[in-house]
Amino acid sequence: MAGIPFDQRDGEIWYDGAYVPWTDAKVHVLTHGLHYASAVFEGERAYGGAIFKLEEHTDRLIESARVLGFSIPYSAEVINDACNQLLVRANLIDAYVRPIAWRGSEMMGVSAQANTIHLAIAAWQWPSYFAPEERLKGIRLDMAEYCRPDPRTAPSKSKAAGLYMICTISKHAAEAKGYADALMLDWRGQVAEATGANVFFVKDGVIHTPKPDCFLDGITRRTVIGLAKARGIEVVERAILPEEMEGFEQCFLTGTAAEVTPVSEIGPYSFTVGDITKTLMEDYMAAVLPQEPAKVAAVG
Ligand SMILES: Cc1ncc(COP(=O)(O)O)c(C=O)c1O
């Protein structure tokens, strides 16, 4: 079910400025990032050979590190180039791209001031699935037990590895009950997001979505808000209480991986896959396609 393990694949990984064989891209067990979650990452997607919103992802990666108190020792330009080159070298057209930066091994304790900051970038094939029949049924979400933390207790503006601990626990618990994912409330009890995607609702032709004040303001989220507004659809960013889900007609998730995914159920609440959701699914798939032909080179 899981396919080839991610540490045993073929290809190359960009690792601290060099291309290394995929299976050699390793860290030592005494790595600060592993023990103390001092790591930040990005999830990017290439469509037709071009990474959608690459610059925004790279800027967020650099900012995520800054929030955790470290500086990635490569410029945005170098990182963007490395992401693009990786695709070209591997002949990848529709792909997922995963940059990750972490504190190394020089010091092993809470304090790690002297640790080298590393950066690796991997990319692998991820076909774009346009066959929407399955997705059009909508996915089912459970309510998560964990809440998105107060920004005073966690660096919520950072796409930090440590923040995914509660996401994995919540997603596993939902999957064990037959759901696709879980909806997390925030520390105030307001609707926040799913475990790896932002959430939107529709009622009376208006879109409602929580303000991203304690969770990631997704790049897809911002794109979809722009697409909705371009269609003249009103988008209200506000605090949403879980009881309000009773009155919402449509619901969908947004994210680099999720794209625009309709939701049919969240706990006791049901939604239909309506016109606004379908329109935004289509508009998003049109928006992600590259404006220029793919820069694909045959690597011998
Ligand atoms: C927790 C979480 N929220 C939201 C998102 C959506 O962000 P984006 O649209 O930038 O992929 C993601 C995906 O990266 C995520 O992991």
Automatic annotation (TrEMBL):
InterPro entries: Aminotrans_IV, Aminotrans_IV_CS, Aminotransferase-like, B_amino_transI, BCAT-like_C, BCAT-like_N, BCAT_family, Class-IV_PLP-Dep_Aminotrnsfr. Its EC number is 2.6.1.42. Keywords: Amino-acid biosynthesis, Aminotransferase, Branched-chain amino acid biosynthesis, Pyridoxal phosphate, Transferase. One of its GO terms (biological process) is L-valine biosynthetic process. Belongs to the class-IV pyridoxal-phosphate-dependent aminotransferase family. PANTHER family: AMINO-ACID AMINOTRANSFERASE, AMINODEOXYCHORISMATE LYASE. This is Branched-chain-amino-acid aminotransferase. The gene is ilvE.
